[in-house]
Amino acid sequence: MPQFFPRTSTTIARLTLLGGALALAAVACAGYLIVESPYETRQDVPREQPVPFSHEHHAGGLGIDCRYCHTTVETSSFANIPATKVCMNCHQQMWAVAPDIEPIRESYRNGRSVLWTRVHDLPDFVYFDHSVHIHKGVGCSTCHGRVDRMPLTWQAESLRMKWCLDCHRDPAKYVRPRDQVFNMAYTPPRNQEEVGQRLMSEYHIVRRTSCSTCHR
Amino acid sequence: MKISATLGLAIALVACRQDMHDQPKYKPLAESNFFADGRASRPIPENTVARDEPIVNDTYHTGNANGDFTARIPVTVDMALLRRGEERFDIFCSPCHGRLGDGNGMVAQRGFRIPQNLNSDRIRQAPPGYIFQVISNGYGGMPDHADQIPVRDRWAIVAYLRALELSRSARISDVPLEAQSQLEAQR
Fold it and tell me: What is the pLDDT of residues B75-94, one digit of tens each?
């Protein structure tokens, strides 16, 4: 019986098998990279807003405390977006005719909400609570980054579950004294591990990695 | 076959997320298609009374006593209250009035109408109930801060303001002896 295939076809067949496996792996890798990329997580991507609000100017330049506007952050799960009235506390007099701020004035006149774009949007199956994090010594900048240096606001971290767990597994790496929570410029001390351990016992912080801590 | 398998894998990795992520429920301040004004968080109907903050016409809630501003702070003034007041003053008052209360805050420096110097004789002599009402209702160019500062914190600020005013005209001899050396060391 004559040979149908030349000798090289064995190699080709092997390479095809190998190539197929590699292609599958490549697709999986590409998928992973896409899922973890800012395209998907929105990390480091400034968001368009109806008013180009600058935390850099308000929190950084003017030194206004986070809580002047985000009044509920210490007592509630939700750090509120301030009411239009709070903007108008100053802007009734300052930049009172600036076109950039017109949506705020319009909202103040007609009582309709300003349609801000949400920057940090956790999945709906995550039950996050700001107040408890603040009382346990997690600083604003630990999760939100240097907001006082953001001309437009972006998400500084990935907000992926593994990122949450990084701290939930070992809070001592990140917690700071309560009186430093709102300090944007806080830098961890060299002996953070030691300070963290002390704060953990002082503030009764325990490692929380049960599913139902965040998913209910 | 292979193409559909890879496609399926790619879709599984990237695109199947939204249903559980965006459930048909409202989170605070979310947008709603149901209500005409588009707000999921409903405006509080007029005359609503919160269970834990009843509307009572007492001195604590109004700053009034016997038809006039109360001359006494209606909560116990201790170190914890003063510390709380200092923190709240720095958050809510200092942007305009400055941390020293001299009216030289950052917002005033940037063009807001120069606010009252809180160390002036007029404010020093004003009764606590008056300060409380100015925080609650505003005064002149100053808007009210009732929605931002809970009642107890307003009293804490009033108490701290008294301490701040005292400190602005205090001499080192007014300080207890053991604290004097501490202060000198900090200079």
Answer: 999 999 999 999 999 999 99
Question: If you search the block for the tokens 């008052």, which residue do you land on?
Answer: B93
Domain that holds residue B75: 59-186
Q: How far apart are CA B85 and CA B132, in angstroms?
A: 12
Using an 8 Å CB-CB cutoff, list residues of chain A that contact chain B. Answer: 20, 23-24, 27-28, 30-32, 34-35, 40, 62-65, 67-68, 71, 78, 80-81, 83, 85-86, 88-90, 92-94, 112-113, 115, 123-125
Domain count, chain B: 1
Residue B49 lies in a domain: no
**Interchain CB contacts (distance < 8 Å): A and B:** 84
Is the separation of the CB atoms in B126 and B165 below 8 Å?
no
What is the value of ipTM here, to two decimals?
Answer: 0.86
Q: Is residue B92 part of a domain?
A: yes
The type of residue at A100 is D
pTM: 0.87
